[in-house]
Structures are given as structure tokens and as C-alpha cells.
């Protein structure tokens, strides 16, 4: 059990450092030039042309490249799934609230996460937010999954494309958005009206709560209203990432 946890920790890293691996993810992260990369490790089994292309791209962004055996990459990443690509990452560049508030999109659509703790869910939500054109994602600092390798991989690299704002207090951030004319709706199975009866075509924020407890009372207190996803089955709730995708789809459809 201890060995399994050690391997998982090595893959996850933390908010200070983690490893990203895989051809697509490493290349995309390097090209985006957003998340700082300390160094890139490439397997010597890659062809000369491929190594040369990566070296040129890395040189453009002043990232050192180390070419070594695939076995060594496996030792560093603690996984064989690296495809010959491994990147040692720096601190993820969360956006400050001021950056978003001072440079708002023309018709902003914000996705607000209230203590989403599962890394895979978080990554899937980021992917949906990018696909449906969200202006930014807002997350808190407490009881919230941080961006790490699992999040990056499950987002299919969308962490490099959609701004993620980290706020000390989600409720306070919502109130700041509201001063900018943003209407904020929480997704709740207890809401009276289904989501398609709400006008989501203007500047809005959509709140998705914690996987187990939903939206906190503090955040509920500052929401302008609540929307419900119509359900037919007996389980009565959706996975948080699935719910996020549905509410984002409806907002995009109305636009």
C-alpha cells in the first residue's frame, strides 16, 4: 500500500512541481508557453528529425532538453506511458482575479468550482470549459484539487488554453463578478426551474459544487439563482464533471 502511494505521489507532484508526460501533452504545453517548464527529457529512441524539432521548439522558449534512455524517463516519471516525452514543470500560473476583472470578455461565461476535489473531475471540467468557450474557470484555494499531472492529462492539455483563476474565497470572487454585471447561477438538483428555462445568453457565471456535498451554504448565499438539470432516473444526481459539461453546453447553445 505504501509503495502504491509513493508511486501515485511521484506522478501527481504538487502545486510546486510535477511531471507531465506524453508526446501530445508535452508538445502542447511547450507550444503554449504558459506553464513554466524547467526541463524536458526526451528518449534517445526518438528519431533524429523528431528530436531536432523538439530541440528547436524548446530553444525558442529557452527550455533545456536532456536526451537519455527511455528507461531513465520511466524511472523519473514512475510510468512507462511517457512515449519518450517528459517535462519537469514549475508552478502552475493561476490567473489573478484582477486580470480577469480588468480585461473581461465581450460576453463572459465563467465556470465557478466550489471545492471540486477529484483531480480527474477537475481535468474533465477544464476540458469541457475550453470546448464550450468559457472565458475563465474560478476555483478556491481550500478543499480544491490543484492543477497537477493528472489534471493536465485528463484535461487533454486544456489547462494550457483556458484561464484558471485561483481565489482565496469563492463567495467573495462571485460578489466581485457580480459588480461587473455577471449573473451567477448555481447548479442544484433542488432548483425549481430546469436550466433551459433560464436566460443564459448574457454575461453569466455557473457554479458547480463539491462532488459529495454540493454547493456550500456560503456560496449559495451569494448566487443570483439556481438551475436544475432535468433527470429521469432514480439515482438523482450526476457526476460533477458531467453536470459541468451539460450546463456549459446549454449556455453555449443559447448563445
TrEMBL record:
CDD domains to which the protein is assigned, alphabetical: SpoU-like_RlmB
A GO cellular component entry from the record: cytosol
InterPro entries: Alpha/beta_knot_MTases (IPR029028), cNMP-bd_dom (IPR000595), Ribosomal_eL30-like_sf (IPR029064), rRNA_MeTrfase_TrmH (IPR004441), SpoU_MeTrfase (IPR001537), SpoU_subst-bd (IPR013123), tRNA_m1G_MTases_N (IPR029026)
SUPFAM superfamilies: alpha/beta knot, L30e-like
Coiled coil: none
GO MF annotation, one: RNA methyltransferase activity
Biological process, per Gene Ontology: methylation; RNA processing
Pfam family, one: SpoU_sub_bind
Ranges for domain Cyclic nucleotide-binding: 100-161
Top-level class of the enzyme under EC nomenclature: transferase
Keywords: Methyltransferase, Transferase
EC number: 2.1.1.185
NCBIfam families: rRNA_methyl_3 (TIGR00186)
Designated name of the protein: 23S rRNA (Guanosine-2'-O-)-methyltransferase RlmB
Amino acid at each position: 500500500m505504501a509503495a502504491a502511494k509513493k508511486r501515485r505521489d511521484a506522478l501527481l507532484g504538487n502545486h510546486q512541481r510535477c511531471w507531465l508526460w506524453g508526446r501530445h501533452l508535452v508538445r502542447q504545453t511547450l507550444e503554449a508557453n504558459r506553464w513554466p517548464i524547467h526541463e524536458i527529457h526526451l528518449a534517445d529512441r526518438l528519431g533524429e528529425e523528431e528530436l531536432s524539432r523538439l530541440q528547436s521548439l524548446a530553444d525558442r522558449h529557452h527550455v533545456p532538453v536532456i536526451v537519455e534512455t527511455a528507461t531513465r524517463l520511466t524511472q523519473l516519471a514512475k510510468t512507462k506511458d511517457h512515449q519518450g516525452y517528459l517535462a519537469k514543470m514549475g508552478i502552475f500560473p493561476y490567473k489573478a482575479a484582477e486580470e480577469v476583472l480588468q480585461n473581461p470578455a465581450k460576453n463572459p461565461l465563467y465556470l465557478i468550482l466550489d471545492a471540486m476535489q477529484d483531480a480527474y473531475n477537475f481535468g474533465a471540467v477544464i476540458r469541457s470549459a475550453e470546448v464550450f468557450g468559457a472565458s475563465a474557470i474560478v476555483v478556491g484555494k481550500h478543499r480544491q484539487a490543484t492543477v497537477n499531472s493528472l489534471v493536465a492529462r485528463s484535461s487533454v492539455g486544456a489547462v494550457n488554453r483556458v484561464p484558471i483563476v485561483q481565489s482565496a474565497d469563492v463567495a467573495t470572487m462571485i460578489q466581485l463578478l457580480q459588480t461587473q454585471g455577471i449573473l451567477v447561477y448555481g447548479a442544484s438538483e433542488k432548483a425549481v426551474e430546469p436550466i433551459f428555462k433560464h436566460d443564459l445568453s448574457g454575461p453569466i457565471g455557473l457554479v458547480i459544487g463539491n462532488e459529495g456535498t454540493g454547493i456550500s451554504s456560503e456560496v449559495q448565499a451569494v448566487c443570483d439563482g439556481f438551475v436544475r438539470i432535468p433527470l429521469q432516473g432514480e439515482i438523482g444526481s450526476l457526476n460533477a464533471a458531467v453536470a459541468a459539461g451539460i450546463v456549459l453546453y446549454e449556455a453555449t447553445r443559447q448563445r
